[in-house]
Amino acid sequence: MKYEPEKFEASGIHEVRELGMGKDLSRDICNMLNAVGGGEWNAARLPGESEAHAVERMCREINNPEKKQEFMQFWLDYLKRKQPEYGLEIQIARVLTELNSLPPKIQNPQMDVLKVLCENKEFLDSQKYQGAIIYHILKMEAHGEDTYQGLAEYGQDRAVSFSPSAHKTVEFNIGYAYTDKYLFGLLEEGYKIAAMTMDGHLDAWEELSRWGIGAIPHKMGVADYLEYCKENNISAAAIKAATGWEVLDLFKMAELEKQDSAYKPHLESRHNSR
After folding, report:
1. Which of 56, 101, 132, 234 has the fewest CB neighbours in a 10 Å radius?
2. Residue 138, SS3?
3. Same domain, 115 and 102
């Protein structure tokens, strides 16, 4: 979808309802358009329109239900199409979640993922982990309540396991096979992936490439994770495009291991190469 801007004239029906929020969100959207490059920012501005006037116009458009949904769908499509780096992904998630607090709301699985990502990011920020990079957030449903358990990288070779539900964080040194415990092991216990960033996929694919799929203890958890990757178009090419790091193709690797191949992949970890 390409966002085609058009002039919006405020009327009695489409007056700005929450002007302060709208202006902040408009500026964030301008920053996001600048960040993605590729002429998106120029395409979103009207001919001869200054940045200040563009912000003011976007403020009005955001508060128009039809134009707000057009904005949101543009960015939802962008996330599916590009799978951007972590910082931009978080910014887009925060803006779309805030936009969706104004009616009418978009209700779909993609928005659910972004909302979970934002809520867990806010929890980490409140616990002094503002610089943490979220890898994944898992969810367990029990007795009508959702329990979340997540993992994030924090500093060089450090990670933090966190649970907003229990209001708990635990720091530890990144070591070998830790993804097996904090991702594949929890998937075997019944947790489901609620949200996962490309940095998280990079980490999981590195570990599986380094050790071999068959060598990971929690094999059912690995199988669940690979199925999730297939359903969400996560591939070696997608990970490289988003993070700049090359990984082995796990799907080919899984086929080779099924055939009892002598293929023994090795890929140096980013953590060992720093």
Report:
1. 101
2. strand
3. no
**Chain centroid to CA 45: how far?**
27
Contact between residue 176 and residue 268 where contact means Cβ atoms under 8 Å apart: no
| Residue 85 exposure: Cα atoms within 13 Å on the Cβ side | 8
Q: Structurally, how many domains does the chain consist of? A: 2
Q: Which of 56, 90, 107 is the endpoint of a domain?
A: 107
Flag whether pLDDT at 260 surpasses 80.
no
The residue ranking higher by pLDDT, 219 or 19, is 219
Pairing state between β 145-153 and 192-196: unpaired
| pTM beyond 0.70, yes or no | yes
Q: Which residues of 162-180 are buried (b: 16+ CB within 10 A; e: fewer)?
A: bbbeeeebeeeebeeebbb
Arithmetic mean of pLDDT, 40-62: 80
Backbone region of residue 82 per phi and psi (left: phi > 0; alpha: psi in -120 to 50; beta: other values): alpha
Integer Cα distance of 143 and 122 in angstroms: 25
Average pLDDT, the chain: 83
Indicate whether 57 and 131 sit together in one domain. no
Please enumerate in sequence order all residues whose Cβ is within 8 A of that of 5, keeping only pairs 6 or more positions apart, or say none.
43, 44, 45, 46, 57
